[in-house]
Structure formats: structure tokens, C-alpha cells
Amino acid sequence: MRLRPRSSLAEHWFLLFLSLYIASFYVNGYLAHPQRKPSTPPPQHEDYRLSVSDPSLPYGLADQHRATHRPQQSLNYLVNYTNLDLCFVSSDAITGHAGMPPCRTIKSLVESISSGGRVGIDAPYVPRDCAMWWYTTDELCAVMARYSLVFFIGDESLANVFGGLLSLLREDAHLGAVLAQRFDHERLMTSCACDSAYLDSDIACVQSRPTSVREIYDLDRTQIKCRTPGLAPFVDAQFVSLDGFPPAEDDVRRLQHQLVRLVARDSKPVAFVYSHGGARTNPKGFNPDETAAWLSHVRDAVRATIPRVVAVREVFLTAGATGPQVPDQMLFTHGLQAAQRFESDLRARAERVGFDVIGTWNATVQTRFAADGVHNRVPVNLLKATMVVNWLDLAEPAYLSGGL
Predict the structure, then answer these.
(1) Average pLDDT, the chain
(2) What CATH number is attached to the domain comprising 147?
(3) What pLDDT digit, counting tens, does each position of 249-291 carry?
(4) Distance, CA of 171 to CA of 136 (rounded, Å)
(5) Does 188 map to a domain?
(6) Which secondary-structure segment (H or E) carries 320?
(7) Chain centre distance of CA 362
């Protein structure tokens, strides 16, 4: 029998070890990067409107729209709303795009929507450098579902903005800001619908306004128009009235109780929208020092209540401009110049501490409204609510920072 030469056997073992050594590089590479997948081109959207149904998606629902850097089509995105024959609204009459691309960062959004203008009384409001986005109701639901709760805390002007948000969620500008169950039909249709829901100071109209999305959903689930199955239960926003300075301690404790009860539901971020200091809130006139102190007081109460593991994002929404009906003896404290100085002061303070402030003076100065600058009509409240939704979409929640 012929034996194999010793050199051939050594060569065989050498090749075996070499193969194992090379194979180990492939195995280690795969274990270190198991997420590597072949790259695929991004999907194309013909009309640049994204239908999103997963609340766990990253922040920035309109990122794909913004990535194209192309303007939104000039259409009426409210065309399917109910009761348009009784209370007509149109998105392209509320805002103008002027061919501008959508805002892509929170800083550019806040600056642009705070610094726009109108060409004529009640003309469409055009942001300065980049455009807001009009969301479908399903997109709006997806944006809000990323938050455990969106808290609106402030005075009557913010209550009206909250009513605008409810109208967007219910797709109804006529009765969207009130609960029809609290009225007989005739009274509701004549006294507290459409503009009257915001302008009428009748206590019955004020009491007809719901203070949370959950309140509407529990009465009639079909009223929240999230068409993606299972999305509506994750949409919640709440208004808490907290005006005056200093805020009443009973109201502050009530706010803290609501925070403990609602924020404990899950670990998703919480958003806070504040407003305070309008002419109606302070009969002495606009006072940025007092409003900054109010905000610090409220945020201290929030900070002492919310768990540190919960991410937070906050924005302050100014009340806006006052009307030409302000009496002569009150022009210095309540007039247009006083309102503009108030907003400029707050925005300057906010910039120093990295706090978002959406100014609405430019958005309201050429609109028809009451003398106090609080009771705006339906288009202005829908505009302000859409500003907040755009901010919610681009906001990146983090831990609470310092006050103003």
C-alpha cells in the first residue's frame, strides 16, 4: 500500500485552517451588522401626500414631502367637511403657498409662520420663507397619536384654538367646536355654531365646548374622523383653563392631578401648548414680564409632576393683534403696537433659552375680529390650529429646559 507523502498532509491541514479563518470574517461581519440589507429606492408619491397609519413612525410625518422640497398643491383640503353650506371654509382661502416649499425644520417653521402676512383684509395668510402643510385628517391623527397627550394650557384665546383643532379632527367647521348633545337643535343652529361658537359670549355657548378629544370620542366615536382602523383611540388632546396672574392654586393642583392621571397611561411623549397675556386676560394691558412669570410658574408645576423618563415638547402661542375698535384711552396698553411689542419681547426671551414661540400678530392683524383680539372667527382659529399641528409634526420631544 502506497503512503501519502508527509508534505501533502501538511498542505491539507493548512488549507483547512485557512478556510476556517476566512469564514470567521464573514460570520463576525454578519453578527456585527445584522441589519444590513440591500438598498431600495424610496417610494414615489405622485401628489406628495403621504398616507400614514402607524403612530410609531419617526417624527416628521411630512418629511417625505419636505424632502422633495416641492410646494403643496394649491387645493381646498377641507372640501369634504360637513355643513359647508352652513359654514363655508377653504384651506386655500385661509393660507396661500405662493409656490414655497414646506418648512423642513422646527426653527424655520416657527420663524416663517410667525413672520408672514396678508395682501388685504381677510386675504390668505402667506408665511414668509416656507409654507405650512395642510394635513389630511388621517395624517393629523397620525401626528397626534405619537403623543400620549397634547395639553393646551392657557386663556380664552387658546380655548378658541383648541376649538379649531376639534373642528379639524371632526371635519366640521360649523359644529366642530361644540357638543351638539348639550343643546336643543334650534338654539344650537342659531346661537353657537360656526363663528358664533367663538364670538358669542353667551355662557351656554361657552359651556357647550368640549375640553378634550376623549370627551367627544366617548360620546360618539364616529365624530373623530381617523379613517385608519384603530388610530382614533390614540388621539387625545385636552384644554385646561389657566388664566390670570398668578394662576389660582386650585387650578394648578387640578392641572397636576390631570397630568398624573393621563401621562401615566404610557411612555409616549407629551406636548404642551401654552398661551397667556392677551388683552382680555390682563385688563391692565399686555405685560411680557407677567406672562413670562406665569409661564415659569406653570412649568414648575408641570416639571414637579411629570416623570423624568417622559419626553416633553413645549410651545407658546401668542394671542395675536387687537382690533381697530380698541378705545382711544386704551391704545397705549391694548392697541396694535402694544400687542406687537408683547409678542416681540416674548419671542426674544424664548430664543435665548431655546423655547418655541409661535407669533400670531402677523396672522391676525388684517382679519375681522373683536376688539380684544381673542374672539377670532373660524378661519383664523383653523389657521392657528394648523400652525400647532405643523409644530407637533416637526417637534422632537426632550426633557424640560429652563423658563423664559
Answers:
(1) 77
(2) 3.40.50.1110
(3) 888 888 888 888 766 667 788 899 999 877 666 677 888 888 8
(4) 10
(5) yes
(6) none
(7) 19
Measured CA to CA in angstroms, residue 68 lies from 74, 135, 206 at distances of 16, 16, 43
- Are 371 and 157 a contacting pair, CB within 8 Å? no
- How far, in Å, are 168, 295, 324, 385 from residue 177 at the CA level? 9, 26, 27, 12
| Residue span of the structural domain in which 216 resides | 63-394
For residue 44, being part of any structural domain is answered with no
Each residue of 18-75: pLDDT tens digit?
665 555 544 343 333 333 333 333 333 332 223 333 444 444 555 555 555 566 667 8
How far is residue 403's CA from residue 33's CA, in Å, rounded to a whole number?
43
Q: Is the pTM of this model over 0.70?
A: yes
The Cα–Cα gap between 236 and 170 comes to: 13
Residue pointed to by grid coordinates 414680564: 289
3-state SS class at 270: strand
How many domains does the chain contain in total?
1
In a domain, 15, yes or no: no
**Other C-beta atoms lying within 10 Å of the C-beta of residue 399:** 11
CA-CA distance, 402 to 292, in Å (whole number)? 12
Q: Max CA-CA distance within the chain?
A: 123
Peptide bond into 43 cis (omega under 30): no
Tally of CB atoms within 10 A around 133 = 24
Buried b (16+ CB within 10 A) or exposed e, 368-387: ebbbbbbbbbbbbbbbbbbb
Separation CA 214–CA 6 (nearest Å) = 84
